[in-house]
Amino acid sequence: MKPGIAFTLAACFVAATTVFALPPRVGALELPKTVVAGNAFSVSTEGSGEAVLYIVGPGQVLRRKVQLGEEVLFHAGEVHNAGHYSVFLVGPSSTQSSEFEVTSTDQASTLSFLAKPSRLPVDVHDGISGVVYVLDAFRNLITQPTAASFELSGLGGAAQTRSAPTRNGVAWIELDSAAKAGNAQFLVHVDKVSEKRIVQEVPGDPCTLRMSARQSDGRIELETDPLRDCRGNTVSDGTIVTFTERYDGGETTVDVPLKRGVARTTVPAHDGSVISAATGVVMGNEIRWRSQR
Amino acid sequence: MTGGRILAVTIVAVTVLVVILGTAFPVPSVLALAGAEVGSLRTPSSPQAAVDNLVQEINRRDWSDAYDQLANKNEFTELDFVRDLNGAYFSLRSYASLDSFDLHLLHASADEAQVRLNLRWSSVVGTFEDARDLQVTRAGNQWQVAWPIVKEPRVPPQVIPVNYLRWDVIYRGAGDDWGEQDVESPHVRIVDMHPVDRGGGVVLLGELLNEDVVPAFVAMKATLLSKNGSAIATEDAFDKISHILLPKQVTPFRIDFPAVRLSQVDSIRMNPSSSLVAASADPVIEIADQKLDGLPEPSLTGKLVNQSGQIVNITHVLGTFYNSGGQLVWVSDGYANRALLPQTPISFTLQVPADLSSQVSSYRVVASPYSSTRFQ
Predict the structure, then answer these.
(1) Which residue among A82, A103, A124 closes a domain?
(2) C-beta separation of A104 from A145 below 8 A
(3) Is B177 on the interface with A (CB under 8 A)?
(4) Interchain proximity B288–A119, CB inside 8 Å
(5) Do B290 and A240 touch (CB under 8 A)?
(6) Per-residue confidence at B27, pLDDT binned at 50, 70, 90?
(7) Measured between CB atoms, which of B165, B212, B284 is closest to A237?
(8) Mutation to test the B interface, candidates A122, A219, A254, A262, most B Cβ within 10 Å
(9) What residues contact residue A202 under an 8 Å CB cut-off, 6+ apart?
(10) At the topology level of CATH, where does B280-370 sit?
(11) What is the distance, to the nearest Å, from the Cα of residue A102 to the centroid of all Cα atoms in its chain?
């Protein structure tokens, strides 16, 4: 017998014995193509005997022993992470596989709201940005377009309201800061869910700086008028005002923080000295000191 | 014998000779600062020997023996003497140690002499000098030093009302959602910066402004980049900057890059950082009588006056020097080595490099106070 014929016969014999010795095969899997996160669903199997069903998805793996030919039920909440899932039914001799998608619910439950910055000067055009991520009860991003409503309300003036639809689960807007300083509430609503942030709208640079001087116990007492920005807001306490006194061959400087909107200090009295004040890039008036004898 | 062996033998021989000479004839001041025992004190048979002995006692912080040596101890108490050298309140002096000293005979006769003593103290922020002119008088066979006491003023017990302004910060919690809002870092801006080639290295001079309404803790780092974009060196301003900036306050900064030539540098990457800090608006420091002294030792002198009721333990003074065009030409700093008591002036001196003094047309001085009770 030629070697080629002998090899063919041997292969046929092995194949025939393998086929007739196998137990019943695992049948086809039947399951929905998409499942809403957290909803119950079932997987149908065919065949007979025992097998193990694996469901592998984002951040989740489920394993069930199943009786082939029966329907496997997954209860509400068992599969809750949105994404692509793979299903494997592993029997004693063969494996069937399939796939399905878990989608987020369309009911917003949580909002991740980023409001930036948390502190900015008044009267800044498009200075405040709000970005909202709409999530369902299982913290899946709801990718279906959803209307988000933003509202910025401060101490004075009308609230700014703007709506924006979500794109791939995200909606964003830009708003102006108000003219009046204070803490503004920045709200976002999606369906019945809302989230709040506080945006501190702070006074801008001083608009004018004016000081007065008077003699006091051999020194000169200097005091600024209440400092306001160009919108009339009182400049923040702690802002440094630098008083400078220049006299023959010398100079005295004092950096004084505003307290209750006013900076106050004393400098040595030098006849003929010139006193000035400045804060940031704003210069104040100058005073030429003459001793009051 | 090879040349190498001859050299080795010569080095060993010279070393042995130097050790023998140093042991047999030690320099008294070095011996004292090396912590030699009391037995090494010389008989004060000359003005210099008397001053030497006194400095040794001071170095050992043997206040009682030092005080006992003094010719004028009836004029002040031992506590006054200790406070003169150590400071009455916690300050740089409190933990400073004597680094070195030198003395010069200014005038001498048979019975009295005047000696200038320069004490160089070493502290955590560098050395500071304390110069005293000592009157030394002869009493029998020995000489005694009259200590020129500087009585540090004591603040009389009183209540000073202060409208206290401070900021406290509450940050977001560790378990908060990632979208949860956090407090914003203060906004700071570099308002001036330029590099200069100086002393075999590159020096970056500049100014930083806190343009926010909250206090900021600031630091400044810079990286010099070569033409191919690689980093040549990275340094930070360390203490050549005022680290706490109140709203709208400006600090100068200076960053030194030793052993880098400006010609090697193509660009500079500045990295200012700022973070919120619990801070206080007080105390307010008046910088009075500022004067620029010219050559031969150009310097800016003045007096620091604490206008608040709180004692300032350490005061850091930073000077910014500009030319007639308003361009920054130098940044210099110094520390007051005594505590700054309310309404009690203390002098300060900021050195200006001699070659730059002719360029200096104006200047600005800022003082950063540090109090041990600041946040209490």
Answers:
(1) A103
(2) no
(3) yes
(4) no
(5) no
(6) low
(7) B165
(8) A254
(9) A119, A120, A121, A122, A181, A236, B213
(10) Immunoglobulin-like (2.60.40)
(11) 25
Taking only the tens place, the pLDDT of each residue in B142-157 is: 899 999 998 877 777 7
Q: What is the pLDDT confidence band of residue B363, given thresholds at 50, 70 and 90?
A: very high
Q: How far apart are CA B350 and CA A232, in angstroms?
A: 41
Q: Which of B326, B287, B318, B308 is nearest to B374 (CA)?
A: B308
The number of distinct structural domains making up chain A is 3
- Which among B38, B105, B102, B26 is positioned nearest to B66, based on CA atoms? B38
Locus of tokens 């030792």:
B297
B178, B248, B367: residue with CB nearest A240: B248
A256–B284 CB contact, under 8 Å:
yes
Among all chains, which residue has been given the structure tokens 């004839």? B25
Where does the pLDDT of residue B41 fall: very low under 50, low under 70, confident under 90, or very high at 90 and above?
A: low
Q: Give B300's strand partners.
A: B292, B350
Q: Where are the domains of chain B?
A: 25-146, 188-279, 280-370
Nearest by CB to residue B287, choosing from A113, A205, A253, is A253
Q: A259: which chain B residues are within 8 Å (Cβ-Cβ)? A: 163, 165, 281
Determine contact: B182 vs chain A, CB below 8 A: yes
Q: What is the pLDDT of residues A61-83, one digit of tens each?
A: 999 998 888 888 999 989 999 99
CATH number of the domain to which A226 belongs: 2.60.40.10
Residue A63 makes CB contacts below 8 A (sequence gap 6+) with: A52, A53, A54
Pair A194, A115 in one domain: yes
CA distance B242 to A256: 16
B192 close to A (CB below 8 A): no
Rounded to the nearest 10°, the torsion over CA B351, B356, B362, B366 is: -30
Does B299 reach chain A within 8 Å, measured CB to CB? no
Percent of chain B with pLDDT over 90: 43
- pLDDT confidence band for A18 (50 / 70 / 90): very low
Q: Which of A266-270, B31-35, B225-229 has the lowest mean pLDDT?
A: B31-35
A280/B211 Cβ within 8 A: yes
CB–CB of B372/B327 below 8 Å? no
What mean pLDDT is reported for chain B?
87
Do the Cβ atoms of A265 and B286 come within 8 Å?
A: yes
Residue A54 lies in a domain: yes
Of the candidate ranges A219-223, B43-47, B66-70, B172-176, the one whose mean pLDDT is the lowest: B172-176
**Token pair belonging to B295:** 């050559």
The parent domain of residue A273 ranges over 211-288
Arithmetic mean of pLDDT over chain A: 87
Segment B294-337, tens digit of pLDDT: 878 899 999 999 988 888 999 999 999 999 998 999 999 999 98
Spatial neighbors of A12 by CB under 8 A, at least 6 apart, are none
What pLDDT does B169 receive?
77
Substitution target from B286, B293, B307, B343 for chain A, most A beta carbons within 10 A? B286
The number of C-beta contacts closer than 8 angstroms across A and B is: 95
